[in-house]
């Protein structure tokens, strides 16, 4: 069965996308992954830190998905970046998040990044504000700043963008379970479907 993603009003709306190109560099890193990579259900999420629907997904679904499903090894959970070109903060947010991931603090940084974007309401996020998030979660700031300034993990973001374009997705967030898009209309619906898939 193939599921199509449907975001209900509680997620505001799905952020539309278009094909984008970014430069590549030599640094590599794996995607942020949590839980059991051999679990029956492998969940993959494409998201954008500035996307209102993604911000609401993080508020309503992400915490439970991470803590009650991934960190209890019921599922494998992988995060993919898709910074939309019409969101001016999104690329910098994604790059900073991957640098936090290199310091083993991805989930903490991502939570703080979504919260910051929620308060900004389309206003510019400064490098100093991202640095403060990194400081607040006790990242090594020399490593973090070097990573951000030198765009260490743009290559990984580029891979995520290429995968998105290949899959011809149309909005964020997009949630896949075992390479099939998950169709849900509410938090309850999301977890009911997921529970059925991991039985």
Question: Which secondary structure elements does this structure contain, and how are they paired or packed?
Answer:
Layout: E1 15-16, E2 33-35, E3 41-47, H1 52-70, E4 75-81, H2 90-102, H3 106-120, H4 127-136, H5 141-149, H6 154-167, E5 171-172, E6 174-177, E7 180-181, H7 187-197
Parallel strand pairs: 3-4
Antiparallel strand pairs: 1-5, 2-4, 3-6, 6-7
Helix pairs in contact: 1-3, 2-3, 2-5
List keywords for this structure.
globular, 7 helices, Thioredoxin-like_fold, 199 residues, alpha+beta, disordered N terminus, Thioredoxin-like fold domain-containing protein, 7 strands, oxidoreductase, two-stranded antiparallel ribbon, Glutaredoxin, 5-stranded mixed sheet, signal, redox-active center
Shape descriptor: globular
Residue share in β-strands: 5-15%
The residue fraction in helices comes out at: 40-55%
- Give the helix tally: 7
User: Which segments are poorly predicted (pLDDT under 50) over 5 or more consecutive residues?
Assistant: 1-13, 18-27
Q: Major beta sheet, specifics?
A: 5 strands, mixed
The overall number of domains is 1
The CATH homologous superfamily corresponds to: Glutaredoxin
- Secondary structural class: alpha+beta
Radius of gyration: 16 Å
Order of helices and strands: EEEHEHHHHHEEEH
Output the strand order for the largest sheet.
Answer: 2-4-3-6-7
> What is the residue-averaged pLDDT?
86
């Amino acid at each position: 069965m193939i599921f199509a993603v449907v975001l209900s009003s509680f997620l505001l709306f799905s952020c539309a996308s278009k094909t984008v190109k970014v430069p590549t560099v030599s640094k590599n890193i794996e995607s942020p992954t949590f839980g059991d990579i051999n679990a029956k259900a492998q969940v993959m999420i494409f998201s954008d830190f500035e996307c209102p629907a993604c911000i609401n997904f993080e508020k309503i679904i992400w915490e439970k998905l991470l803590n009650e499903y991934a960190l209890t090894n019921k599922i494998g959970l992988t995060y993919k970046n898709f910074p939309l070109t019409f969101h001016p903060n999104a690329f910098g947010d994604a790059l900073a998040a991957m640098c936090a991931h290199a310091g083993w603090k991805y989930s903490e940084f991502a939570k703080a990044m979504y919260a910051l974007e929620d308060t900004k309401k389309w206003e510019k996020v400064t490098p100093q504000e991202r640095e403060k998030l990194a400081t607040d979660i006790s990242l090594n700031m020399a490593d973090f700043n070097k990573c951000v300034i030198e765009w260490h993990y743009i290559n990984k973001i580029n891979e995520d963008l290429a995968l998105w374009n290949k899959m011809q997705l149309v909005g964020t967030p997009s949630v896949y379970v075992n390479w099939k898009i998950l169709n849900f209309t509410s938090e309850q619906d999301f977890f009911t479907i997921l529970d059925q898939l991991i039985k």
